[in-house]
Amino acid sequence: MAVRAAVAGASGYAGGEVLRLLLAHPEVEIGALTGNSNAGQRLGGLQPHLLPLADRVLTETTPEVLAGHDVVFLALPHGQSAAVAEQLGPDVLVVDMGADFRLKDPADWERFYGSAHAGTWPYGLPELPGARAALEGSKRIAVPGCYPTAVTLALFPAYAAGIAEPEAVIVAASGTSGAGKAPKPHLLGSEVMGSMAPYGVGGGHRHTPEMIQNLSGVAGERVAVSFTPTLAPMPRGILATCSASAVAGVTAESVRAAYEKACADEPFVHLLPEGQWPATAAVYGSNAVQVQVAYDEAVGRIIAISAIDNLTKGTAGGAVQSMNIALGLDETTGLSTIGVAP
Ligand SMILES: NC(=O)C1=CN([C@@H]2O[C@H](COP(=O)(O)OP(=O)(O)OC[C@H]3O[C@@H](n4cnc5c(N)ncnc54)[C@H](OP(=O)(O)O)[C@@H]3O)[C@@H](O)[C@H]2O)C=CC1
Ligand SMILES: CC(=O)N[C@@H](CCC(=O)OP(=O)(O)O)C(=O)O
């Protein structure tokens, strides 16, 4: 019997991407599609790439509309998911692509999001040690932020192997879809095209505590993180350049061995052959993660670089991968590692 899935926020980027993936998922049938300001509009006018759903009309986001589904994907702005989720029964699998349930420490939430903490759900990054067990059979999933996905997948092998000191410096470039579809002056084509610029510099980005939470969980001690995001003139993609001091005795060979071990059985994380470097173009529209690592002996630092599609593995692909695990399906069902090139 098909899994019936509703998508709240179907007019947005994350909602559109999860629909693109669900249309190709052999076990899923698409049910209600909801919006806010676009309720009453045809999906074809909002997401013209989703041709099979073009004549579907968005409804208001209400508990009545979302009831009666096996899975409900929430692709809503931060702070909107909790009120919707609490009205959905405990038997419905709720997959939240927003931030509301990602953080464990309420003080982190309050500091970075400025509202009351809604709670913590099983975290939808299956590659993290212990995550798959927590997702199996779960009825609630908190999908990670796009930058924390890229950064955690670049650095977890180093912390799992105990070869990195508990401090990491990260500079990551993101495509503009990471900022959502709502119009913002800094996202005008004339502002973004032909330019790259940092933002959230100096520890202010709300994804910093999520990265610290993930990496500290793997390391078994608090990992300090310096994170600088930058906006890149491309619609999709994140390239995360991460570095951490190596512990004494580390060599280029031991770094490589740690990454080979951690990535060996991961269906979506691809450690590239030595000498080849991750590129966002290679993972465009795919759930794959490209990772490469080097040991910079001159400064004693491990340099780990990852590339993801922020909307696929960074949001909707991670959501579907986690849904598959929660429902007892093969983790890779409906997900592709094939990109689009050039
Ligand atoms: N873009 C990305 O790379 C990533 C996004 N996410 C998360 O996914 C969520 C959605 O982001 P994104 O798709 O980029 O954002 P968009 O701005 O593109 O879409 C937002 C969606 O939410 C709907 N919406 C807005 N306000 C309300 C409300 N008050 N009640 C119900 N629905 C509402 C909008 O409906 P309408 O258009 O009809 O007004 C639209 O469908 C966010 O929480 C974001 O953090 C997570 C990881 C990465
Ligand atoms: C380019 C850009 O603006 N990116 C977004 C992150 C998008 C994302 O993954 O985050 P959430 O799910 O936590 O919103 C930002 O920096 O705010």
From TrEMBL:
Its EC number is 1.2.1.38. Transmembrane segments: none annotated. Catalyzes the NADPH-dependent reduction of N-acetyl-5-glutamyl phosphate to yield N-acetyl-L-glutamate 5-semialdehyde. The lineage of its organism: Bacteria, Bacillati, Actinomycetota, Actinomycetes, Kitasatosporales. Keywords: Amino-acid biosynthesis, Arginine biosynthesis, Cytoplasm, NADP, Oxidoreductase. It comes from Streptomyces roseochromogenus subsp. oscitans DS 12.976. GO terms for cellular component: cytoplasm. One of its GO terms (biological process) is L-arginine biosynthetic process. Pathway: Amino-acid biosynthesis; L-arginine biosynthesis; N(2)-acetyl-L-ornithine from L-glutamate: step 3/4. This is N-acetyl-gamma-glutamyl-phosphate reductase. The gene is argC. It is found in: Cytoplasm. Residues 4-136 form the Semialdehyde dehydrogenase NAD-binding domain. It catalyses: N-acetyl-L-glutamate 5-semialdehyde + phosphate + NADP(+) = N-acetyl-L-glutamyl 5-phosphate + NADPH + H(+). The keyword NADP applies. The keyword Amino-acid biosynthesis applies. Signal peptide: none annotated. Its main location: cytoplasm. It comes from the Bacteria. Belongs to the NAGSA dehydrogenase family. Type 1 subfamily. The active site is at residue 146.
